[in-house]
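ESCALATION

Customer reports they have been waiting on this structure for their group meeting. Please prioritize. Original submission:
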Amino acid sequence: MGKDFSRRARGIDPQKKPARLHLRTWMQGIVDEEALSMPKATDFDRRFDSRRQELSQLFGELYQGDSAALDDFLEMLRRCWRERKRALRDQDRRREADPGWYRRRDMLGMMLYVNAFAGSLGGVEEKLPYLRECGVNYLHLMPLLESPKGRSDGGYAVSDFRTVQPELGTMEDLERLADACRRGGVRLCLDFVMNHTSEDHPWARKARSGDPEYRSRYFFYDSWDIPREFEKTVPQVFPTTAPGSFTQLENGQIVMTSFYPYQWDLNYGNPAVFNDMTENMLYLANRGIDVIRLDAIPYIWKELGTDCRNLPQVHTLSRMMRLAAEIVCPGVLLLGEVVMEPAKVAPYFGSPEKPECHMLYNVTTMATTWHTLATGDVSLLRRQMDAVCALPKDFLFLNYLRCHDDIGWGLDYPWLGQAFGINETAHKKYLNDYFTGAWPGSDARGELYNDDPRLGDARLCGTTASLCGVEAAEYEGDPFKLERAVACDVTLHAWMLSQSGIPVIYSGDEVGQLNDWNYKEDPGKCEDSRYIHRGDFRWELARRREDPDTRQGKQFRLLRRMEELRAAEPCFDGGADVWTEDSGSPHVLALCRRMGDRELVCLFNFSGGFVSAGVDREGAYRELMYGDRYESIRSVPLWPNGFAWLLRENA
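Update from on-call: job pushed to the front of the queue and completed.
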């Protein structure tokens, strides 16, 4: 039955199946005239032969030996490889020969919304010179596939995985942009929303009409008996804005909706879902996408009596997707979106023998960074970095300060309680008060998201610059405050650039763009405070980057200087040894990096006062940004919210 599902999704009448060929015959390449005319040993054959045993075993274990579904899956892989154009196949070969191509220290990412940045995909192509001026060689386009107006969750409710939102362009425009990026050395990343579809997706429409084949692609129930059993163990994702994990439709049917009522969870227990969703992923890869972001991957397997998070089957699925990519498009990377504590994040890398995702987000370090700025105490951040530094160097994280989403306070509260007596609810309120400017003396300007006064578990929104105090300083016309706020913004970016992995900037941060409060006047956005940092890119302000006397010019110049230093200095290499040391001050984090006989000591002052701090070293050190020299770095003077990159001389 799984095979029929997969064929129907591709518009093939399941009643008119071609005669099935034995898998072994298919493996010999004798499928059609095209296969007969191909060389006996293609890149596909070589890669498939080395992976077919594991792939078939995993598929069989997960889907109870469904050989028909497996045959469909394998046929699909060959079909997708045939459809991959020559330029992409050539790139695959180059990247296979250079497996560390994406780990270089000159990698610099930016994430942006197409409509907010340039209006359309064609507009983004026209703005590629600006992105190259920013040093960007990894570009993450936020969700742009077709989604219903007003029921899209920012593009995360996809109604067609092969169609671009009409106002942004076409799939041909996306492929043309990908070609231009490839020629310019820019790697393109796109979200693949795999946990659910929009209720307007063709599968969902057929399921709503009662088609049993398509109902089985989701979680449909005729009564609340089983959904209530699920909800006994499944946490709510959005308890305030979208309570519960199920939605009752107008005809009385009940469907699982973990996120929002218009996002229907897919049933990956049905092999047709896995087959067709993998084909959708490979379709995007064949348009020239270099990095596929696997959205909400921890949620994709559901099982009654569990919390439906991080189940073992999720890792089986992610491993099979990795194998599929390695066979069809080995130049394409998988980025896992796992917004959870470190113990649950690291397993998504898999193992050296059986890797899963190529990259993951360093989400806990991001949240801990903002906690550290609000408290001025680096204890938790040092503990977090010690945990990250203890992981294998092969584990590659994307590091960021802000993104399209909110900041959730998923901190190590058991340790904070034990070490400092901190109460979780009270501390979250303090952080939210601090970053919304409600705390006395705070110049941060943010907005709460998903505020639930009963639980005290609100999250936070806002641009980096506004959270650092730039917005308040400019509003007050206080040049002293503005200088301090810009220094804070620059130091946080220096901290992000000092970590191993790929640094990713949110569009607008390169010129210190402020909050867009106009979202409150837009009926389609006013209910979602995340639009405060999703505003249109201010090109009139970006033009000031060329004037070093403007704030935008100063921030742009300093950020580019740091990025260039990072790209040039071997100590920032991903293979460097990295560790923290006691700086002698509770306000200053000391991060040390060593590559061969070169050593770099990075100091970050998270307080608003002047501090002297350092590490126990003798000998000459040179500060990379400003050129100051020190004969000892035991006590280095640091400006309020300032930093120092200290390179040992004669290295």
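Sent to customer with the following note: The chain has 25 helices and 25 strands.
Escalation resolved.
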